[in-house]
From TrEMBL:
It comes from the Bacteria. CDD domains: ABC_NrtD_SsuB_transporters. The gene is ssuB. PANTHER family: ALIPHATIC SULFONATES IMPORT ATP-BINDING PROTEIN SSUB, TAURINE IMPORT ATP-BINDING PROTEIN-RELATED. Residues 1-29 are annotated as: Disordered. Residues 1-17 have a biased composition (Polar residues). This is ABC transporter ATP-binding protein. It holds the Pfam family ABC_tran. Keywords: ATP-binding, Nucleotide-binding, Transport. Residues 35-266 form the ABC transporter domain. One of its GO terms (molecular function) is ATP binding. It comes from Streptomyces lasiicapitis.
């Protein structure tokens, strides 16, 4: 485990590469990050009060990197994902995807939420294909990609089932397939497994990590589970209570292939989860 404070990262933006080794600083600055948040502030003005949700947040996420975001409730984690998706404009600072400033809703991202939000009257396959219909993608290619994702997520045999015939885990798999159908370079996940039982959640963690390894997707995952963050991520962003700032960035030095039980038994896993707990505990959060 290596910890880097946000001030250091603001300037260097270094990030681990796919092999788990750290890219050297010169290479990292020469490479355009998949996601860049530069000096972000977000203020909400409501009739009753003004809320500063995020303040001085800077973060570079490398292409193909898996970053988990943890922090106390209300510290601005969902707000941060909305900025990347272009669903919200920052009050100050710049957001860029692949070097291009984000100026409005982005179609080239995938988004998975806590609730799968499937259409009840459509089968699993037709829920996945909705993404293609909304984007006007060629039907044959979309069907082939949907079949590939169905296989990758172990949904074979349930393609024609309706949402009420699927378990919570299966519904989230359908939502994941739908989010990946158009092969987005960036996948945003907001507490995607929060409504699942502990065992299904573990299985989904293992599957998500395998799918991420098999694709080149950059992932930003918001989670309240410290073990989930450390098991899945290359780096964990730990946030402070509102106004959310980055308290610390934790590099997770685990091998790319991560067998679940063996990973949880490693010293690296214990050190990283311990450090995050300490930081969140010090901030008064008990996630
Ligand atoms: N549209 C909005 N208008 C006003 N305030 C908002 C709006 N969206 C978010 N907020 C406020 O901004 C802060 C951050 O909200 P956000 O949902 O990003 O937090 P979070 O870290 O994702 O929380 P949780 O972990 O509980 O889901 C909260 O205080 C919230 O009330």
């Amino acid at each position: 485990m290596t910890t880097v404070n946000d001030t250091t990262l603001n300037k260097s933006g270094t990030a681990p590469n796919k092999s788990g080794a750290r890219a050297d600083r010169t290479t990292a600055t020469a490479t355009t990050p998949a996601v860049r948040l530069a000096d972000i502030a977000v203020r909400f003005r409501t009739k009753r009060k003004d809320v500063t949700a995020l303040s001085e947040v800077s973060l570079d996420v490398a292409r193909g990197e898996f970053v988990a975001i943890v922090g106390p409730s209300g510290c601005g984690k969902s707000t941060l994902l909305k900025l990347v998706a272009g669903l919200l404009a920052p009050s100050a600072g710049e957001v860029a995807l692949g070097g291009e400033p984000v100026r409005g809703p982005r179609r080239d991202i995938g988004y998975v939420f806590q609730r799968a939000a499937l259409l009840d009257w459509r089968s699993a396959r037709r829920n996945i294909l909705l993404q293609a219909e909304m984007r006007g993608l060629p039907a044959a290619a979309a069907r082939a990609r949907a079949d590939e994702l169905i296989r990758m997520t172990g949904l074979d045999g349930f393609e024609d089932a309706y949402p009420h015939e699927l378990s919570g885990g299966m519904q989230q798999r359908v939502a994941l397939c739908r989010a990946l159908l158009h092969e987005p370079p960036v996948l945003l996940m907001d507490e995607p497994f929060g409504a699942l039982d502990a065992l299904t959640r573990e299985q989904m963690n293992v599957e998500l990590h395998r799918i991420w390894r098999e694709t080149d997707t950059t992932v930003l995952l918001v989670t309240h589970s410290i073990p989930e963050a450390v098991y899945l991520a290359d780096r964990v962003v730990v946030m402070s209570p509102r106004p959310g700032t980055i308290t610390e960035l934790i590099d997770v030095h685990l091998p790319r292939e991560r067998e679940y039980a063996a990973t949880l038994a490693t010293t690296e896993f214990h050190e990283a989860t311990g450090r995050i707990r300490e930081l969140l505990g010090a901030a008064g959060a008990h996630d």
